[in-house]
Amino acid sequence: MKLSIPEREIMSPGHLACQGCGAALAMRYVLKSLGKRVIYSVPACCWSVIDGPFPYSSIGVPLFHTAFETAAAVASGIKAGLEIQNDEETRVVAWAGDGGTFDIGLQALSGAAERNDDFIYVCYDNEAYMNTGIQRSSATPWGAWTTTTPVKHFKKERKKNIVEILAAHRIPYIATASIAYPEDLIKKVEKIKTIKGTKFLHIISPCPPGWKSPPELSVKLAKLAVQSKIFPIFEIENGIKYKINIHVKKPVSVKEYLKPQGRFKHLTDQDIEHIQQDADAYYEWLLKQEELSNE
């Protein structure tokens, strides 16, 4: 019987991630599917530290450490070099956090998406600049504490909808994923391997130090993010065809997701209700997009 999650391990033990790091688990799963015929472009982020100090590396494949804003640009260049060598087998992955994707790297990602350059862009989203001290990013959700949005001045802006920004570029494939649903994640990576052009994969990746949560709860939190509709799991093809991959028929309240995280402990019941309404509204909008896609 074929296993849904490959048994092979490309990533090595001994990496430098914190206990319970969602980004480390995300890398492990993606590599299991991609195999060794791949080159990574990694900007300044947690993973530029997790990988290990030169000359050591934990991911077992070639990796270019790049400037903060250049993950997509370097990936485009690597792919161009491979094409000159007539290498159609080696895949290229830009692997960046939310700061290097939503914020400082958005210009390079947008340019690559507009050109439809043939590589995979993976954003492991821990919802702040965790590597440099838990500063707010545009991926930080409304209501969250960070060192630059302290309790009395918690973040008052919505999380940027990076998926819809990429959908506006009409790239061939966009998907969200969670480390709590590895079969769904692996299935999407397998699908991505068959698609030419720019592919974008957005993975929710809990960060125990930044989320102020126990490390043993990371996978549970990644699941609650989905089950509370905070982080819906869906895919978009060519910017217009929507499909929800994990339908939430019996959702849990967002309070159940927020409660284990110290970054939200200051919120009032009214604040939590605001988050609930926002999550419900977006999920209903996605359902409508899926319905329209099937007409």
The averaged pLDDT comes out at: 96
Shape type: globular
Please provide the count of β strands. 8
Largest sheet: 8 strands, mixed
Q: Roughly how many Å apart are the termini? A: 36 Å
Structural class: alpha/beta
Tell me the series of helices and strands, N- to C-terminal.
Answer: HEHEHEHHEHEHEHHEEHH
Arrangement of strands in the largest sheet = 2-1-3-4-6-5-7-8
Considering the protein shown, what is the CATH homologous superfamily?
A: Thiamin diphosphate (ThDP)-binding fold, Pyr/PP domains
Low-confidence stretches: none
Under the CATH scheme, which class? Alpha Beta
Number of helices: 11
Detailed description of the structure:
- With 295 residues, the protein is an alpha/beta fold.
- It has a single domain (22-293), classed as Rossmann fold (3-Layer(aba) Sandwich).
- It is 37% helix and 14% strand.
- It is built from eleven helices and eight strands.
- Strands 2-1-3-4-6-5-7-8 form an eight-stranded mixed beta sheet, with helices on both faces.
- α2 links the parallel β1 (38-42) and β2 (63-65).
- The protein is globular, with a radius of gyration of 18 Å.
